[in-house]
Structure formats: C-alpha cells, structure tokens
Specification:
Shape: globular
Distance between the termini: 36 Å
Mean pLDDT: 95
Largest sheet: 4 strands, antiparallel
Oligomer: single chain
CATH architecture of the largest domain: 7 Propeller
Order of helices and strands: EEEHEEEEHEEHEEEEEEEEEEEEE
Strand content: 35-45%
Strand order of the largest sheet: 4-5-6-7
Number of strands: 22
Number of domains: 2
Number of helices: 3
Radius of gyration: 19 Å
CATH superfamily of the largest domain: Integrin alpha, N-terminal
Length: about 300
C-alpha cells in the first residue's frame, strides 16, 4: 500500500479491529492498522468485517480498500491518501447509503463495463433467518450490489439496471469473477447458504475495449501472484493492477488481469514487475489476450487473441 515494492497484508476482522500488516522487507510484518485509519469505523467502533479487496479505483496510483460489513454498519471504502493514512469515503457516498441495511460478505473491485474504472461488487445475506422479526427493514435473503465507478471518487448503484436475475434475493456468501465465456468481459459467480450457486453472465460489458494479461512466473511463483502489471495506451492513459489471490470472501477469482479501455483502441505498452524484482516490457493491442513469461516476455497464449462478441 505504500509502494515500497514489498506486498503488505490487510485483514478484515469480525467484531475485532481490522489489521494492516506492513511488510518490513526482512521477513517480518508490523500491524499499522490503527495508525493508518483502517482498524475501526469513523466512530471508533470495530465492525463485523467479512470480505475485502484492494485496487486503485481513482487513478491515484495507490491501492484503496473496500470491506463488506454487517447490517447497520455499511461497507467501508478506505481511500489511500498516499501519506500512510486512509479515509473512509463510504459514509458520504452512495456506496454507504445503499449498503447500510445489507450484510455484505464477498466484495471485490472489477471493471464490469470495461471503461477503465474499477467498479465494486458485493454479495449479501444475513446470518439470522428470523432477522426480519427483530429488524423489520432487514432481510435474511438479500440481492447483491454493484456500484459503477463514475470517476472522481464517486459511485452509483446500478443493481436495477442489470436485469431481473441480478435483483433476486439470496443468502450470499462467497463470490468471484472470471471471463468464463471468453468474450472479454468479466462474469460473476455467487455461492449461497442452502441453495445453488448463481452464475451471472455479463452481456454487453465488452462493448468497450480491453486487454487481458496472464502472467507466468519462472524465478517468481508459477502464476506470478504479486506481480504488478502496468498498461500504457498511446494517448498516455495508464492502468495498473496486481495479480492476486485471497480477496473477496472464501473465494478465488481468476488470476489473469483484465484492463478496460473504454472507446480507446490501438497499441499498448505492458510492463510486468515480478516479485523477483525482474521487469518485462512487451507490446500489445486492445482486445487481445496475452501471456507474459518472466524473463522471456510475451509468449503464445492458447486462447485466441481476437475479439469475440
């Protein structure tokens, strides 16, 4: 989170302060969650944190953190100020208002419409099947949330714009994303208590342009987990993401990283900074799916690199 080249660790805790372990670079970590402002809510209360994820949602070059919390607590959106301090933007945003009554388990950043701005998904569901008898406005089964990133640190709920399947209540727990149908945009699967999983196919996200990058580690781990991938377009627009595991809630999304570019097309410069410290730079085009092998650069990818609808 401090861009010193060493991966740090954030842990969302249930009724206990969240932890932010800073990597000292010598095999040790030190918790700085309280000093960084991510341990408690703005009122100084430890919330019931469930799922969590991190991404640069505002183009600042720094990863910020989203956390799913209990009903009547709202989700947290800790913005990385770049000074070692995080500020929770949720209470003053549409995100906080829309999630106040939700119990959010899995949550993650992903660019569902490929416009280049990471959006936020949350799977919801209460833990008490009789909660409505105690709190009339809170339900056991709850529909998921999706917040579209409008830029300038603003999000809007788009649940009611995504079709009837998205609005069906469920007792959501885990959730993950992947391009399961190979059309370039990201689809979502949700696990639920005592009911089948739900696969939500993204139809129309690929109206915008994209690049998908799969990393193959050699000196680093096999999948390149921890690698930082930065993509620069011809107009200077820059996006970055980290190959990661361990976000959301009891779930694992796909490892290839997807970058959205909106209406921008053309040549792209891709830089992969590996956990080993090595840096590989390759060329690509929008609407391609590429693989980068540590120390070798771009290698053949089994899937077609052409755009599909």
């Amino acid at each position: 989170y401090d861009d010193d080249g060493w991966p740090d660790l954030f842990v969302a805790n249930d009724t206990q302060p969240n932890k932010l372990f800073r990597n000292a670079g010598n095999g040790t970590f030190k918790d700085g969650g309280m000093a960084a402002g991510v341990a408690f809510s703005e009122s100084g209360v430890a919330r019931a944190g469930m799922g969590t994820d991190a991404a640069d949602f505002d183009g600042s070059g720094r990863p910020s953190i989203v956390v799913g919390n209990f009903s009547n607590e709202m989700m947290a959106l800790y913005h990385n100020e770049g000074t070692g301090l995080f500020i929770d933007d949720a209470p003053t945003s549409a995100l906080g208002q829309a999630t106040l009554l939700s119990l959010s388990f899995a949550c993650f950043f992903f660019d569902y419409d490929l416009d280049g701005r990471p959006d936020i998904f949350a799977a919801n569901g209460h833990v008490a099947d009789d909660i409505q008898a105690v709190q009339a406005r809170v339900r056991y089964a709850q529909p998921p949330h999706l917040f579209r990133n409008l830029g300038n640190k603003r999000f809007e709920p788009v649940d009611d714009k995504l079709g009837p399947a998205f609005r069906v209540p469920m007792v959501g727990r885990g959730a993950a994303y992947a391009d399961y149908d190979g059309d370039g945009d990201l689809d979502v699967v949700i696990a639920a208590n005592n009911s089948p999983a739900r696969l939500l196919r993204n139809d129309g996200g690929n109206r915008n342009h994209f690049l998908r990058v799969r990393t193959v580690g050699v000196a680093s781990n096999r999948d390149g987990i921890g690698a930082k991938v930065t993509v620069t377009a011809a107009d200077g627009t820059r996006r970055w993401s980290t190959v990661k595991s361990g976000s959301s809630y009891c779930s694992q999304s796909e490892l290839p990283v997807t970058f959205g570019f909106g209406s921008t097309t053309g040549r792209l410069k891709v830089e992969v900074r590996w956990p080993s410290g090595r840096v590989d730079t390759v060329d690509a085009q929008t609407d391609e799916r590429i693989a980068v092998r540590e120390g070798q650069g771009r290698v053949a990818e089994p899937a077609s690199g052409t755009r599909s609808r």
